[in-house]
Amino acid sequence: MHLDWTALGQVTAVSIGVTIAAVTVFALGVLGVARVEAAREENGTGSTLGLTQAGLCFVACAAVVAYGIYLIVPQFH
Amino acid sequence: MDHITFLVAVVIVTALAFTPGMIFAGLVGAVWVGAGSHGVHFDKVVEKVLIPAVASPVVAGVAALLATYLAYRLTDRARKKSVTKGFRAGQIASASLVSLAHGTNDAQKTMGVITLTLISTGALGHDAGPPLWVIASAGLGRRLAEVRWGVAGRMVIAWMVTLPAAALVGGVSASVVTNGGNIGAVVVALIGAALAGGIVLLSRRNPVDAKNVNDAHEVTIRNEPPAKVGTAA
């Protein structure tokens, strides 16, 4: 019985890696939103840093999701 | 109605009613009876089914553990309301993706099993792809077949009980059809339909809808009115 350990290892590494990366980026995006809303509470104005942070992170998350859907759906190949 | 059609009906009903793992176990049992034990490539079963089946929950569990821990650590000291709102939105997105991945996977398996049956009875040629009606009914049947399993331990116990049971059912059904001719096929079809219908009826007694889908996993089937407790005078 021959097991393709390399393939198994690759799938494991990519699964864990991408999951952690995507969730971390999303969490950073949420932190950006929190920064904006905290600034709004304190000063009345928003926080450009927070807005940029949130915007960039969520765009990155959307890109990961779009790529994942592209990989899954056979019509795209 | 000829016995091929009934056999197909049986396979479709059971395929729609049971989870893919059970379908697979049923296949193994049926092949074992139909072609002898050399018909089942057990080393391939271990290599391509059992090992991935054990490995994938472990990989998913580790990934989820690390990701959740990181999410908590990163957002620990931030403004609570924003964080809650943000992750609630994220959960909607990730739940949708889980549905997509699960659906694109399960329906394919169901279609594959049904097509396999059709090819093996000669109703389809060797190289045929799944017919359109198979594709359409696989999508329909999935809604009927959604079953919520519980905690991991309960899943494992369920697998350990139902996998041999499904293999047995597959084997017995195949033997009945082989030895019983048309009547055998009819009997198997009727029993399969009755079982599937019974399961659907039972599950309707306590339906899962949007309100209770996230509740605890233990559900009482029979609802008894609460006992009247007398108040102290």
Automatic annotation (TrEMBL), chain A:
It comes from the Bacteria. Keywords: Membrane, Transmembrane, Transmembrane helix. The chain crosses the membrane at residues 12-34, 54-73. This is Secreted protein. It comes from Streptomyces endocoffeicus.
From TrEMBL, chain B:
InterPro entries: Phos_transporter. The keyword Oxidoreductase does not apply. The chain crosses the membrane at residues 49-72, 156-177, 183-202. It is found in: Membrane. It is a multi-pass membrane protein. Keywords: Membrane, Transmembrane, Transmembrane helix, Transport. PANTHER family: LOW-AFFINITY INORGANIC PHOSPHATE TRANSPORTER-RELATED, PHOSPHATE TRANSPORTER. This is Inorganic phosphate transporter. The lineage of its organism: Bacteria, Bacillati, Actinomycetota, Actinomycetes, Kitasatosporales.
